[in-house]
Design goal:
This protein is an alpha/beta fold and 173 residues long. It has one domain: 3-Layer(aba) Sandwich (Rossmann fold). 40% of the residues lie in helices and 20% in strands. The chain has 6 helices and 6 strands; from the N terminus they run αβααβαβαβαββ. The protein has a 6-stranded mixed sheet with strand order 3-2-4-1-5-6, with helices on both faces. Helix 4 links the parallel strand 2 (74-78) and strand 3. It starts with a helix and ends with a strand.
Length: 173
């Protein structure tokens, strides 16, 4: 019986190691989108302008085309109408709820994504002012984004293990 026990233990240890590696080695993908163009402010929380509505119309399909596996697991958006209206086509495309972020949530969103969404694809719809900070916290990469840049979509790829990469894509016209 003892000669069979050692090979059995080796097989069990190898299986446990493969299981552990499979749960540890996951790639997290974070897509950061700025809200589209807002209408002239008649209140503190404007809707999208006609140009903004036109820009986001195909955003969900665009992301489905560029993402490996064509799926998004979780969707965050700032708690403003323009951010939620930008997120709506993504929510519709991937059948997801829009999880709202208050202004006080932005400081911890990168940590939250790393902790709660490991191995998932997460889209975050925010502002010109929030994206550089989140990208930096996720990747230690500094990006410069012009105030009038509504076309850039940043993709942060966080492999585990491996080096984090940041890609800049463009959508809309």
């Amino acid at each position: 019986m003892a000669p069979l026990l050692v090979p059995l233990l080796i097989v069990l240890a190898a299986g446990a190691g493969i299981f552990w590696l499979g749960t540890w080695a996951r790639t997290t993908v974070v897509i950061l989108v700025r809200h589209a163009e807002a209408a002239p402010a008649t209140s503190g929380d404007p809707d999208l302008s006609p140009a903004g509505e036109a820009r986001v119309r195909g955003l969900g399909e665009y992301l489905a085309d560029v993402l490996p596996g064509g799926k998004v697991d979780y969707l965050y958006a700032a708690d403003t109408r323009r951010a939620q209206q930008t997120a709506a086509p993504i929510a519709n495309q991937f059948k997801l709820p829009i999880n709202l972020l208050a202004s006080s949530d932005w400081a911890g969103i990168a940590t939250r994504i790393k902790r709660e969404h490991r191995g998932e694809t997460v889209v975050v719809v925010g502002y010109a002012s929030t994206r550089p900070s989140v990208i930096s916290q996720l990747s230690a990469t500094q990006v410069a984004i012009r105030e009038d840049d509504y076309r850039s979509v940043f993709v942060v790829v966080i492999p585990s293990p491996g080096e984090t990469r940041v890609l800049r894509l463009r959508y809309g016209s």
